[in-house]
Amino acid sequence: MLILSKTFIFKKNNLLIIMLIVMLPVFLFSEVRYLSEEEYKDLSKNEALKYWEELENEMMMLQIREADARNCVTKDEVRIVELNQKIQEVEEEYDNLYNALLTALGGLSHSQIVEFQNQLDEIKAKLDYYGRMPDSELYKNNKEILAFIDKYNEMKDQKAAKIPEFALEFKEIDRRVSKLRDDLKGAKPPYYEDTHVVVKGEYLWKISGYKHIYNDPVKWGIIYRANRDQIKDPDLIYPDQVFKIPRGLPTTWRVYRGECLWTISSYPEIYNDPFKWPQIYRANTDQIKDPDLIYPNQILQIPRD
After folding, report:
1. How far apart, in whole angstroms, are the C-alpha atoms of residue 70 and residue 50?
2. Residues 200, 175 share a domain
3. 49: domain range?
4. More confident residue, 1 or 65
5. pLDDT tens-digit profile of 147-177?
6. CA dihedral in degrees (262, 263, 266, 269; nearest 10)?
7. Which of 20, 200, 220, 228 satisfies CB 3.0 to 4.6 Å to 204 for a cystine?
8. Could you give the number of structural domains in the chain?
9. At residue 31, what are phi and psi to the nearest 5 degrees?
């Protein structure tokens, strides 16, 4: 019976300890409502004792929090010192690698790097300028823009372009240049004209066969018809002559001596089919009274689907 009593007492004491552990945070973190002097005077003795007990508990809670905070500050200060040391080590390693890279690139100077950065800034400003252009202006400045893109690509071959700090800038500029190329292609009208300067040894058949012209020598007649104002004999062309190179399909046609609707309709730049001549006739009945009678310098409309 005595043994049972001791066991019971032991269990009872353990239960009280567990309850205190569970309830302690409630006491420690419960908020105390501070009383005014008048409110305190109205308290009974027991109420006053309870109020002081609450104040003591709050004080103990604040002391614990302060100790924890000081401990955290100490740990953080040690961690900050460690991190600063690592940052310094990384910066020193970066500087060593950076200087080694500059040496490998031929010993670029700081002023050269600054100058290269200025060139990149000019490229970005120019991209902003072209980006605000309407399609008509983009096409009008086609050659200038292509020359600008070529210049940028040449910049990428410079030694300074290999420096890592420019990598992100090049990535962004490459994206914008690619978009500019797409915008330039989209700005081309259905029909436009390039130019070609004749060099010694060239003839219309040869020019037409160039891959960047028509890649087909049989189409030499397109060049001839577009330049009849300066080509009297298609077998005779001369160095330094500047020829118009038609691109796309024209929507108008200036009649030349000796042409008829059948002939015009047969041209590859028109319909490549002489039997389609009635389409031209119907589109121009306001100035063609007889389809067998058309005259030099008439401007005919060429219908397109």
Report:
1. 30
2. no
3. 2-84
4. 65
5. 999 999 999 988 888 888 888 999 999 999 9
6. -130
7. 220
8. 4
9. -80, 140
Among candidates 191, 177, 175, which has minimal Cα distance to 139?
Answer: 191
* Contact of 136 with 187, CB cutoff 8 Å: yes
> Within this chain, do residues 142 and 214 fall inside the same structural domain, yes or no?
no
Structure tokens, 127: 């991209």
3-state SS of 90-126 is HHHHHHHHHHHHHHHCCCCCHHHHHHHHHHHHHHHHH
- Of 185, 227, 184, residue with least CA distance to 207: 227
Q: Of the given ranges (53-57, 171-175, 228-232, 294-298), which has the lowest mean pLDDT?
A: 53-57
> How far apart (Å, rounded) are the C-alpha atoms in residues 162 and 184?
29
Neighbours of 262 (CB within 10 A): 14
Return d(Cα 73, Cα 68) in angstroms, integer.
9
pTM value > 0.85: no
Same domain, 71 and 128: no
Place of tokens 């002489």: 274
Query: Do residues 201 and 228 both lie within one domain?
Result: yes
Q: In this model, does residue 107 exceed pLDDT 70?
A: no
Kind of pairing between the strands at 299-301 and 252-254 = antiparallel
| DSSP string across the chain | -HHHHHHHHHHHHHHHHHHHHHHHHHHHHPPP-PPPHHHHHT--HHHHHHHHHHHHHHHHHHHHHHHHHHHHHHHHHHHHHHHHHHHHHHHHHHHHHHHHHHHHTT---HHHHHHHHHHHHHHHHHHHHHHT--HHHHHHTHHHHHHHHHHHHHHTTSGGGGSGGGHHHHHHHHHHHHHHHHHHHHT--SEEEEEEE--TT--HHHHHHSTTTTS-GGGHHHHHHHTTTT-SSTT---TT-EEEEEEE--SEEE--TT--HHHHHHSTTTTS-GGGHHHHHHHTTTT-SSTT---TT-EEE----
For residues 244 and 255, membership in a common domain is answered with: no
